[in-house]
Design goal:
Layout: H1 2-29, E1 34-41, E2 45-50, E3 56-61, E4 64-69, E5 74-80, E6 85-91, E7 97-103, E8 108-114, E9 122-126, E10 133-135, E11 141-147, E12 150-155, E13 163-166, E14 173-178, E15 184-189, E16 193-198, E17 207-212, E18 217-222, E19 228-233, E20 237-242, E21 253-256, E22 261-266, E23 272-277, E24 281-286, E25 292-297, E26 302-307, E27 313-318, E28 322-327, E29 333-338, E30 342-348, E31 354-362, E32 367-375, H2 382-399, H3 402-452
Antiparallel strand pairs: 1-32, 2-3, 3-4, 4-5, 6-7, 7-8, 8-9, 10-11, 11-12, 12-13, 14-15, 15-16, 16-17, 18-19, 19-20, 20-21, 22-23, 23-24, 24-25, 26-27, 27-28, 28-29, 30-31, 31-32
Helix pairs in contact: 1-2, 1-3, 2-3
Length: about 450
């Protein structure tokens, strides 16, 4: 009997190690991205936005407005026109509503849509030919540029503006952001001023404070709980201010990088501030102080940054088509991949499993404008691992049968290997299909080029 147990005990230990090592290998598999689909647009894609659940994707191009259902991969509807140039889109968190800023050759327009309906709920004529729009999470409020130096504030009910605000000396607005709850707005201008505004119909209570930097304000953000405001300037410096204590015109802290500040954003839990600079670096700070947590150097100019809603991941796109997935807490590179051309206007799903982006590829013979959706989720094995662990412990505790552990370990290992082979076969088949699609797209591009000539 002792000899028998000497034989079984190592096998039990092996089974426990197996139950630990398999989840580790699953985590490794989840870092690999698969392209789910690609959509080719006929003209340059100005901007995209995606709902938090990654159900709806809105894309604005030089001559079209697209609404996609990402779950089915279908185009729900589009509005096209030779004179319609969509410059800005912003969607609510649940994807039910979105705002779009577009222009013709002579006028600007602001539209408010229900996502599944191509007929706008209402429209508003703007003097700005490239209006920027920014919508609150619930879709009930949004702000837009009326002309180059004035913002207007709406609620969802109709096109009558609730109020407006103009920059000092009519300086051009460069950046705009509305808080998640729609209660506050931050705007930055060409003269280096940042204005923090309260959403109220009482003019005397509207302006909370303004702050002056050393150069034009490229990027602004408000944290999800409205506790912090970030201002990024062309003087290479990012400033963090507090909505209550910044009336003294002094930031809580500031940090100077080696390049102009391009984007700023807070993690949803308000713990970190993520900054992109023209020195091709990503900087991550503790929000409460200027302590630099980590930096990451991209291989080329950074065009876009997006943060997952769970505050765990940042995705970065650059001018050479590289897309990086970084763990915010550690700065660890989880995954990186490349598509031809510039990768910009990135969006990431709440848990970091999906990434969408706009892409522009050009060479001497062809110019292509694409939308991409990538997937790194791999739900296989997760439930099996939990089931295996619980069943293994149950049999050992209740029956005390080491043979049960041996049997389950062997059976699960075989199942694991077989499913790995199935997934590998599916991945190879997907790559084959996408390769054929790429060849087809290239053929179409060649045909178009021939027709034009």
């Amino acid at each position: 009997m002792r000899k028998l147990y000497k034989f079984f005990i190592p096998l039990i230990i092996f089974s426990v190690i197996l139950s630990i090592s398999i989840p580790a290998s699953i985590q490794f598999n989840q870092s690999n991205f698969t392209r789910v689909w690609r959509y080719n647009s006929e003209n340059y894609i100005e901007e995209i936005d995606v709902s938090n659940d990654f159900k709806y994707l809105i894309a604005g191009t030089y001559d079209n407005l697209y609404v996609f259902d990402l779950i089915s991969g279908n185009l729900l509807w589009n509005k096209s026109g030779e004179n319609i140039h969509v410059k800005s889109v912003s969607i609510s968190s649940n994807g039910d509503f979105f705002a779009a800023g577009l222009c013709t050759h002579s006028n600007g327009y602001i539209y408010y849509f229900e996502s599944r309906n191509s007929t706008p709920l209402w429209e508003y004529r703007s003097l700005e030919l490239e209006p920027i729009v920014s919508i609150s999470s619930d879709g009930e409020n949004f702000v837009a540029i009326y002309n180059s130096y004035t913002i207007i504030f709406f609620d969802s009910s109709n096109s009558l503006p609730l109020w407006n605000a103009t920059t000092e000396n009519q300086s051009q607005i460069k950046s705009l952001f509305i808080s998640s709850d729609g209660n506050y707005v931050i705007k930055g201008d060409l003269a280096g001023n940042a204005y923090f505004l309260n959403n109220t119909d009482i003019p005397s209570k509207r302006s909370l404070w303004n702050f002056t930097t050393g150069n034009e304000v490229n990027a602004v953000a408000i944290s999800s709980g409205n506790a912090y405001i970030a201002v990024g300037s062309n003087d290479n410096t990012v400033f963090v201010l507090d909505k209550y204590n910044s009336t003294s015109k002094r930031p809580l802290w500031n940090y100077t990088t080696q390049g102009d500040i391009k984007t700023v954003d807070f993690t949803h839990n308000e713990k970190y501030l993520v900054v992109a600079s023209s020195d091709d670096k990503i900087y991550v700070f503790d929000t409460s102080n200027s302590r630099l947590k980590w930096t990451y150097l991209s291989s080329a100019e950074i065009l876009s940054v997006a943060l997952s809603h769970d505050s765990n991941y940042a995705t970065v796109g650059d001018i050479e088509g590289n897309i990086y997935l970084l763990e915010i807490e550690s700065g660890k590179l989880i995954s990186n991949f490349n598509v031809r051309g510039e990768s910009y206007s990135l969006k990431i799903s709440s848990e970091g499993n999906y990434i969408s982006c706009a892409n522009h590829y050009t060479d001497l013979s062809v110019s292509e404008y694409r939308l991409y959706l990538f997937d790194r989720s791999d739900p296989s094995y997760g439930k099996d691992v939990s089931y295996f662990n619980s069943l293994l412990l149950q049999n050992i505790v209740i029956y005390g049968l080491p043979t049960t552990a041996i049997f389950l370990s062997s059976a699960f290992l075989i199942q694991f290997i077989l499913r790995k082979l199935v997934l590998r076969k599916e991945r190879i088949e997907k790559e084959r299909i996408f390769k054929k699609l790429d060849e087809k797209f290239d053929d179409w591009a060649d045909e178009d080029k021939t027709k034009k000539n």
